[in-house]
């Protein structure tokens, strides 16, 4: 650890930079109705990153007319799903009567809680015309006391998503959860979480405060950069997990770089609770998983009309 001046913000402050504990390369796998994703976790080598359960990068891919895939009706209980779309168009509906659409830059934060049956598919126009599809789905665990809460949705359009820039103009951040560069999220989370999308031009540096009790990782999806006090290299498709040995994370793009670095920075207070998971259900015990399966099969999570 060492003291460093914070870069990329209006006021320089002293920060203890975290080091990188490990670099994880994502795997490629099929999800939903057969669409390809890059997944840093869960895998055989990394089951979860408390409080986060899964991160999938969907695409980027060019989809021919009539060939777009989605995730037909499926249940969820005990956690939250966060869909962040960069390109393409999706539509959704659920067993509680909710329905909506997502376009480029939009975010849907769904708290499944006690359970819903959910359908996520490319919207009708995108299905007819095809095009570029790219986005992310993140699963966030719920603490024991919230696992059976009433389901809820928070949907934020691209135009309503807070955006900020560094004083030198080399760093942009879109704030999905938490705060960065003076911008604060409009989404309410059940536990303290940061979800930040940084775009760092060549020569850009940002030092993002992250409380020492948060677990934190960066996921690179375009370009390459240097991370942490040790300036570990990270490239597209890689996750960099940080030690809890400081109160800030440093992200940089080399001055000689030829393209911008695009990276998600995710951090949250670990729950430290037992995790029992089976497909779309995440609870604390196997008995609760069995109950979730029984409730779904008996129709107690409803059905999509």
Keyphrases for this structure?
seven-stranded antiparallel sheet; 51% strand; 305 residues; Jelly Rolls; mainly beta; 2 helices
Q: Oligomerization state of this entry?
A: single chain
Largest sheet data? 7 strands, antiparallel
Mean pLDDT over all positions: 93
Which band does the percent of strand residues land in?
A: over 45%
- The radius of gyration is 19 Å
Number of strands: 28
Classify the secondary structure makeup into a structural class.
mainly beta
CATH class: Mainly Beta
**How does CATH name the architecture?**
Sandwich
State the helical fraction.
under 10%
Tell me the number of helical segments per DSSP (H or I, 4 or more residues long). 2
H-E string = EEEEEEEEEEEEHEEEEEEEEEEEEEEEEH
Shape: globular
N-to-C CA distance: 56 Å
Query: Ranges with pLDDT <50 over ≥5 residues?
Result: 1-12
The CATH homologous superfamily is named: Jelly Rolls
Structure summarized in a few sentences:
This protein is mainly β.
Describe the protein:
By secondary structure, the protein is mainly beta. It has one domain: Sandwich (Jelly Rolls), CATH 2.60.120.10. It has helices spanning 124-129, 286-297, and strands at residues 3-5, 14-16, 20-25, 27-31, 35-41, 52-63, 71-76, 79-87, 90-94, 99-102, 107-111, 116-122, 131-141, 152-156, 163-165, 171-177, 179-180, 183-184, 193-200, 205-209, 215-222, 224-227, 232-235, 238-242, 248-252, 261-268, 276-278, 281-283. The chain has a 7-stranded antiparallel β-sheet, with no helix packed on it. A 7-stranded antiparallel β-sheet has the order 4-5-6-13-8-11-14, with no helix packed on it. A 4-stranded antiparallel β-sheet has the order 7-12-9-10. The protein is globular and about 55 Å long. It starts with a strand and ends in an 8-residue tail after the last helix.
């Amino acid at each position: 650890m060492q003291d460093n001046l914070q870069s990329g913000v209006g006021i320089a402050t002293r920060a203890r930079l975290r080091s990188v504990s490990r670099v994880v390369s994502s795997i490629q796998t099929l999800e939903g109705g057969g669409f390809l994703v890059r997944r840093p976790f869960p895998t055989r080598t990394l089951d979860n990153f408390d409080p986060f359960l899964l991160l999938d990068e969907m695409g980027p891919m060019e989809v021919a007319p009539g060939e777009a895939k989605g995730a037909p009706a499926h249940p969820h209980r005990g956690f939250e799903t966060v869909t962040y779309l960069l390109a393409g168009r999706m539509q959704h509906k659920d067993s509680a009567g909710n329905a909506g659409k997502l376009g480029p830059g939009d975010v849907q934060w769904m708290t499944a809680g006690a359970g819903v049956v959910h359908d996520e598919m490319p919207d009708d126009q995108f299905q007819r015309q095809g095009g570029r599809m790219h986005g992310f789905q993140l699963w966030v665990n719920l603490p024991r006391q919230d696992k059976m809460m009433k389901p809820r949705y928070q949907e934020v359009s691209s135009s309503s998503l807070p955006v900020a820039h560094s004083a030198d103009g080399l760093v942009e951040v879109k704030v999905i959860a938490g705060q960065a560069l003076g911008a604060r999220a409009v989404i309410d989370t059940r536990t303290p979480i940061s979800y930040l999308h940084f775009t760092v031009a060549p020569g850009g540096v940002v030092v993002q405060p992250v409380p020492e009790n948060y677990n934190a990782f960066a996921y690179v999806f375009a370009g390459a950069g240097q991370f942490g006090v040790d300036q570990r290299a990270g490239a597209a498709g890689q996750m960099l997990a940080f030690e809890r040995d400081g109160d800030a994370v440093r992200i940089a793009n080399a001055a000689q770089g030829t393209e911008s670095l695009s990276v998600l920075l995710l951090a949250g207070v670990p729950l430290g609770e037992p995790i029992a998971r089976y497909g779309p259900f995440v609870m604390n015990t196997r008995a609760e998983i069995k109950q979730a399966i029984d409730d779904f099969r008996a129709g107690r999570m409803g059905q999509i009309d």
